[in-house]
Write a structure and sequence with these properties.
Its cofactor is Zn(2+); Mg(2+). With 402 residues, the protein is mainly alpha-helical. The protein contains 18 helices and six strands. The chain is 48% helix and 3% strand. The strands form three sheets. Strands 1-2 form a two-stranded antiparallel sheet. A hairpin with a 4-residue loop joins strand 5 and strand 6. The chain is globular and about 60 Å long. Bound molecules: zinc ion.
């Protein structure tokens, strides 16, 4: 379709193989070397780690990371954890990098930097995804503090902001909030009824979901809305006719690949956003698998690996990961099953369920109290901080850079 529109003859992608090992090397490269053109993504570096680590998992290739490198990534991720001390505002969660975690003896500078140290819902979601996928047991974080941080950014209309100091509030962060609470198996003061109302009020006339109430229906937003409903155990509150209408809107987004909105060009990432939305609705089988695969394969870079959003475009970790997930839904050989609503492999989700079973025997209030006691005694600081000067095993500029 895209080739027709551009009047360019494209490659025959129908029978092209998915270059599994090239994609794995592509992800490993991003964990070892961050290209300078991505410098503007410094504050969201955790998301690049998420796409690379979870991408390797979907490729069943986590073994390409040495045990030492996996531990480095885990330690680096914990280095972005913000933990408010008792009495401080509820801003717990992960940041996307440690660019505002500075080392200095200047008290004023430290005070100023602290103003910008708060958890960000998207970074918290992706950081938890990295930790779970790498098999961490999450014992270095306090589940209650993080969910308190989620509840603190819920708006009166039921939506969520990204962080406590204000940001856009829309369906992206509704999804992140639901994913975090589901992963931590705790909802605390998060108001799920209000979350439900916000989501249902965002269904537009054509049954796509909009980012924020009066907006236009959108594929990524529709995924966020449906995943949040499922993760919060509220999908069954939506009536059957509405669900059928949403399915129809999603199915009609297929051209060969999928588009995010009517009359827009197809884009690799929507093979995940719309594909996963239909998976959640148990309607993915209504799509044309070969046409979907063929489009995604048109965007594959057969030289350096990775997928782009369009043919003849530069691949990136985001479209590479979501393209692979989209292919996984079609049963592509060599790719692991993906859990649609959490956007991670089913193998990682199984690891998470083991943690959930373990947490069943715990009292979260007691754990929180204990964690805070340790924190106030500063016994945990040494465990959480990643001291660069004493860490000689860092192997990646992505992980090493502050
Ligand atoms: Zn895209």
């Amino acid at each position: 379709m895209s080739y027709d529109a551009l009047n360019i003859e494209g490659p025959a992608a129908d029978d092209a193989p998915v270059l599994l090992s090239k994609h794995a090397k592509y992800f490993v490269r991003f964990l070892r070397l961050l290209p300078s053109r991505l410098a503007s993504h410094d504050s969201t570096r955790g998301t690049i780690a998420f796409f690379a680590v979870c991408g390797l998992d979907v490729l069943n290739s986590l073994h390409l990371l040495t045990k030492e490198m996996r531990q480095n990534i885990i330690d680096w991720t914990y280095g972005s954890l913000v933990i408010p001390k008792p009495g401080e505002r509820n801003c717990s969660g992960f940041q996307g990098s440690r660019s505002v975690t500075i080392k200095t003896d200047d008290e004023e500078l430290l005070r100023n930097a602290k103003c910008y140290q708060w958890g960000h819902l998207a970074m918290t979601y992706t950081s938890l995804g990295v930790l779970i996928t790498l098999g961490d047991d999450l014992s270095r974080l306090d589940r209650k503090s993080i969910v308190d941080g989620v509840a603190a950014v819920q708006r009166p209309d039921g939506s969520f902001s990204a962080c406590i100091d204000g940001s856009e509030n829309d369906m992206r962060f509704v999804f992140c909030a639901a994913a975090i609470c589901h992963m931590l198996d705790y909802w605390g003061d998060v108001n799920r009824d209000k979350m439900f109302d916000f989501i249902l009020n965002s269904i537009r006339y054509d049954y796509g979901f909009s980012q924020h109430l009066e907006g236009e229906g959108h594929g990524g937003t529709t995924y966020c809305a449906l995943a949040a409903l499922q993760l919060s155990g509220q999908l069954n509150r939506v009536d059957t006719q509405t669900l059928e209408n949403i399915k129809r809107w999603c199915v009609f987004r297929q051209v060969d690949g999928f588009q995010g909105r009517p009359n827009k060009p197809v884009d690799t990432c929507y093979s995940f956003w719309i594909g996963a939305a239909l998976k959640i609705l148990n309607a993915f089988e209504l799509t044309d698998y070969p046409a979907n695969r063929s489009y995604i394969l048109e965007t594959q870079d057969d030289v350096v690996g990775g997928f782009a959003k369009w043919p003849h475009s530069t691949p990136d970790p985001f479209h590479t990961y979501l393209g692979l997930c989209g292919l996984s839904f079609t049963g592509e050989p060599g790719l692991m099953e993906v859990m649609p609503s959490l956007n991670m492999s089913m193998m990682a989700y199984d690891k998470l369920k083991v943690l959930h079973a373990k947490w069943q025997t715990r009292n979260i209030e007691e754990d929180h109290k204990h964690y805070m006691e340790l924190l106030s005694q500063r016994l945990y600081d040494a465990k959480i901080a990643v001291e660069e000067e004493t860490t000689t095993t860092i192997t990646s500029p992505l992980i090493k850079a502050q």
